[in-house]
Specification:
The protein is an alpha/beta fold. The longest helix has 33 residues. Helix 3 packs across helix 13, helix 10 runs antiparallel to helix 13 and helix 13 crosses helix 15. Helices cover 41% and strands 17% of the residues. The protein is built from 16 helices and 13 strands.
Amino acid sequence: MCIVLHPILRALYGLFTGVTSSAVRVTIKEDCKSLLLSNEQLTTLMKDMDDAIRNGLRKDTNPSSIVKCYVTYVQDLPNGTERGKFLALDLGGTNFRVLLIELGENNYFHMESEIFKVPAHIQTGKGTELFDHIAKCLAEFVKKHNLDSKNALPLGFTFSFPLRQVGLTKGYLNSWTKGFNCSGVVDEDVVKLLKDAIKRRKGLNLRLTAVLNDATGTLMSCAHKTRYSKNCFVGLIIGTGCNACYVEKIENAELFDGDQSKPHVIVNTEWGAFGDDGKLDAIRTKYDREIDEDSLNPGQQRFEKMISGMYMGEIVRLAIVDLANQKKLFEGRLSEQMKTKGAFGTSYVSDIESDKANYRETLKVLNEMGINDPSLVDCANVRYICECVSRRSAHLVSAGLAVLLNKMDEKSVTIGVDGSVYRFHPYFHKLMVEKTKQLTKSDIKFDLMLSEDGSGRGAALVAAVAVRDELPLKTNGVAAK
């Protein structure tokens, strides 16, 4: 058999080989067209998202806005004067982290952390059970690290679910996402629920000084990492979920009732809900609709469900099953594992697109999924499906990011980014940079900075800044120029 390089794949990445089979290949390309987005479609999306964000910022339109634009009450970035030990709790998925951060003179920084699991039955059980489990793990961490219980350690709480904040230490859960569905938490103050759980754990002496989401934590972490950067204006999460925050002028954040003497506040967009009003219907595929209908929160977080790591692998699996059922893949043969919902992890997408040659990783993944002896044409087509799904994800994020950059109209912006999809996918960064440049005003320059433990480290830094601001020290506003 003659094996030749496939020109389309080579043009995309130039790193791997493909197999020409015009009849099959063209058919696969036709079937995947719905997963490809033009700049015209993205521009339409950007206009709708810009409208949604502006509606979310205004008092009169916020109640009906799909994109809520919650104010975070975080108005200051780290400035280098923070000192002491700070705890952080980072809850946003099936695992959560507890961190201990120490800040000292001459940029001294030390961090220790531990990962704890949230069992499946707790993720969908009673809210009190969730927070009791968190308090139990906090107590274990405090004991393990011999932290002084006489002095209440400041604790920053990253809660990476849609949160309507009414203060730096008060926030109400709007809705669960990412597979969580604990009872008795929606519309409740999650800070109070955690404080109550801590009280039930005798001997655990902590002082909750801030609640925030992971995007805000990422922004704060990158601002600290760049030695108190004054142009870190965006925090972006592309992992299990997808969300962004950005620095907004006080006069535009009409719902903000905090310190009006400072010019800016960080706004948590919660853009994962964009499209829940039908604005994305024109570009949603049958795979997107199936994922949404089978989820724990049908009709909600539709933008996030087209992007994030919780869903990307499942979109690929649904496409593979669909095409195999049409006998366009694997001669119509499917394993039970490939037919199983959630069996094709998003990490498989990264593995397959990491192939340099000979489809070694693709063959390994397909074998793990119970597909034995696939043809090289099948491997090429599976990779093409992965490329289409991940490229669409990157381009959707780029469109949202371009909306924020164009709205702020700052000429130089650092964007802090965290999340497993961005961190581990071999081409996500490149795809995002290229598309964001195309969609952003030509005079705006930006850099994407990978955050290190952004959501957890950021929570501790918000706590540190809150404690710093309790002291009679002069501090700078969040977007001091």
